[in-house]
Amino acid sequence: MLDSQPVEAVPEFNTMQIELVRVDDAFHFEAVGKSGIPQHIDAATDIGGHNAGARPMEMLLMGLAGCSAIDVILILQKQKQVIDDFRLTVDGLREKGATPAPFKKIHITYLLKGQLDANRVKRAIDLSMDKYCSATAQFRPTTEITYSFEIQP
Fold first, then answer.
1. Fewest CB atoms within 10 Å of the CB: 32, 36, 54, 104?
2. Contact, 139 vs 145, CB < 8 A?
3. Residue whose C-alpha is closest to residue 93's, from 137, 57, 50
């Protein structure tokens, strides 16, 4: 049995907490963190969900995308790069039929538009992947993460 004690606040660590509340009699949940902005989570209809929110594993990929996007944009802004548009797609590969089915491979495609130097973009992404992105650090021990990028003028 898992220890049911809450995480103790320790001064040298940042603590984080979310609350998850069941919305219906199936698998629709609302999660709220410190930001106070609710996020909806649901299961697929084939197991009784109502498709009223993101799947938990999708949210993991969304977290990875958001974490790296923030890093890359901050780094490029510090380098005085002009970003007119920024998007990324994340593709995750999980083993079929496995339980649990963690991600084995993840590929991130960064799509940028603006007056950007390709070497600076690559360096910003490398820094995010290798140094700054905490979500990447969570996946790294068990998941191969690769990336590519495209710059449009």
1. 36
2. yes
3. 57
Q: How far apart are CA 55 and CA 129, in angstroms?
A: 24
Q: Which two tokens stand for residue 5?
A: 């004690």
Q: Give the pTM.
A: 0.90
Question: In this structure, are residues 107 and 147 in contact, taking their beta carbons and an 8 Å threshold?
Answer: yes
* 3-state helix/strand/coil string of 34-50: CCCCCEEECCCHHHCCC
Tell me: the pLDDT tens digits for 102-129?
Answer: 999 999 999 999 999 999 999 999 999 9
Residue 129: CA count within 13 A, CB half-sphere = 17
Cβ(30)–Cβ(38) below 8 Å:
yes
Distance of alpha carbon 40 from the chain centroid: 15
Nearest Cα residue to 117 out of 92, 82, 91: 82
Angle between helix 56-78 and 118-127 (nearest 10): 130
